């Protein structure tokens, strides 16, 4: 059962645990009794007042959509989320249809691998620049053409279909539709078949989707298992194999951090760092951006996640001075800045968090304006913090109010 299908009380309990709050601490912050919290989490007491759900979301530092989903009308759950991003229903329809994979379904000509490769390349470029509204509109046609190409050209088409699914899963994670992201990632794994490298790249997306669903332990198992399956002898491996293996290890580390498993975090990041030293901060491999700088960015994020916020902020100051940092895709830099803003919140530096959010918006506006996670962080900074330069303007632009 996914988090979206859980009763709202169960979702509250899961997020409370993730925030490392006891029932008593959570109750105190809400101004409620511990007994009230316990009854809500067990489903004995209903959450039927919107104002109370809003307050819970604020205390848990998550967007309302995470708690509401199917417990409230779509208009209430999605208000203000992913502004300007239309077309997700078209992506959903493309993912659940299987007839598009038949080359004779409507007599249309089957696109050549070169044509589909051009579309896939364009989609990855849109993703790297965080042009999510444009990308979502592109995806239904891309999934259609990649699927039909695969029927006529199984070998070349399989790689293109895996990539189309990976792109779909990645952007759906960004937009907060974790269930649909998981479906796309699962389709990528199936399309990869027995090709080890394709299966490993698909597992990267699977790990991201499972983490978005709150299934960190399963995400860690899936990504680490895939990394071990592809793990080459370093002296014989291609840079692409090393990059994918290292990316899987980093995904495993992020999942381990979500579980509070600090020893596994250290082990997995150190293993990835050894591979990154061989790859270097150079050309792109399989859309991973993997290299020493990305490893260091993950060290920042996992340090904050396991509670070592001071170390996270020290590392952040150092890594963002690297030349390789500035060469990363805009999406990657902005997503990282949003994650680091959360670390600033943990130490009560709302001005610092606001500054990072404004920087993220400059790098890739949709990363802040379309993602529920980023909007949650921005909302907390705007409501509770000082008027950091640019924060009020950004909050107004996406419809947040104090």
From TrEMBL:
Q: Which domain of life is it from?
A: Bacteria
InterPro entries in the record, alphabetically? Cro/C1-type_HTH (IPR001387), Lambda_DNA-bd_dom_sf (IPR010982)
MF terms (GO), sorted A to Z: DNA binding
Where's the HTH cro/C1-type domain?
12-67
Name of the protein described by the UniProt record:
Helix-turn-helix domain-containing protein
The source organism is Micromonospora pallida
Q: What are the top taxonomic ranks of the organism?
A: Bacteria, Bacillati, Actinomycetota, Actinomycetes, Micromonosporales
């Amino acid at each position: 059962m996914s988090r979206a299908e859980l009763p709202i009380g169960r979702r509250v309990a899961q997020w409370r645990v993730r925030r490392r709050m006891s029932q008593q601490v959570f109750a105190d912050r809400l101004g409620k009794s511990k007994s009230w919290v316990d009854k809500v989490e067990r489903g004995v007491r209903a959450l039927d007042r919107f104002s109370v759900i809003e307050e819970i979301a604020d205390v848990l530092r998550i967007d309302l959509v995470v708690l509401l989903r199917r417990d409230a009308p779509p208009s209430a759950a999605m208000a203000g989320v992913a502004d300007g991003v239309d077309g997700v229903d078209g992506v959903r329809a493309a993912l659940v249809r299987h007839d598009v994979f038949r080359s004779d379904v409507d007599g249309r000509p089957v696109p050549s691998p070169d044509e589909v490769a051009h579309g896939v390349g364009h989609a990855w470029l849109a993703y790297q620049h965080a042009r999510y509204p444009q990308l979502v509109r592109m995806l239904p046609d891309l999934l259609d053409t990649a699927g039909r190409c695969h029927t006529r050209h199984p070998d070349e088409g399989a790689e293109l279909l895996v990539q189309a699914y990976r792109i779909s899963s990645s952007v759906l994670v960004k937009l907060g539709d974790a269930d649909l992201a998981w479906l796309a990632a699962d389709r990528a794994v199936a399309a990869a078949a027995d090709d080890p490298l394709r299966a490993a790249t698909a597992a990267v997306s699977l790990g991201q989707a499972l983490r978005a669903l709150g299934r960190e332990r399963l995400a860690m198992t899936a990504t680490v298992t895939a990394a071990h399956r592809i793990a080459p002898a370093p002296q014989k491996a291609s840079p692409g194999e090393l990059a994918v293996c290292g990316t899987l290890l980093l995904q495993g580390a992020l999942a381990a951090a979500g579980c509070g498993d600090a020893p596994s975090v250290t082990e997995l990041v150190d293993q990835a760092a050894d591979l990154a030293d061989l790859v270097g901060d150079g050309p792109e491999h399989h859309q991973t951006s993997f290299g020493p700088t990305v490893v260091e960015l993950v060290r920042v994020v996992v340090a904050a996640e396991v509670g070592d916020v001071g170390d996270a902020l020290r590392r952040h100051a150092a890594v963002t001075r690297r030349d390789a940092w500035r060469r990363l895709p805009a999406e990657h830099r902005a997503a990282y800045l949003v994650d680091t803003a959360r670390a600033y919140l943990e130490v009560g530096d709302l001005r610092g968090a606001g500054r990072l959010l404004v920087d993220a918006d400059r790098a890739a506006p949709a990363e802040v304006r379309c993602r529920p996670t980023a909007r949650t962080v921005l909302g907390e900074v705007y409501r509770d913090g000082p008027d950091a330069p640019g924060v009020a303007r950004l909050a107004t632009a996406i419809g947040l109010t104090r």
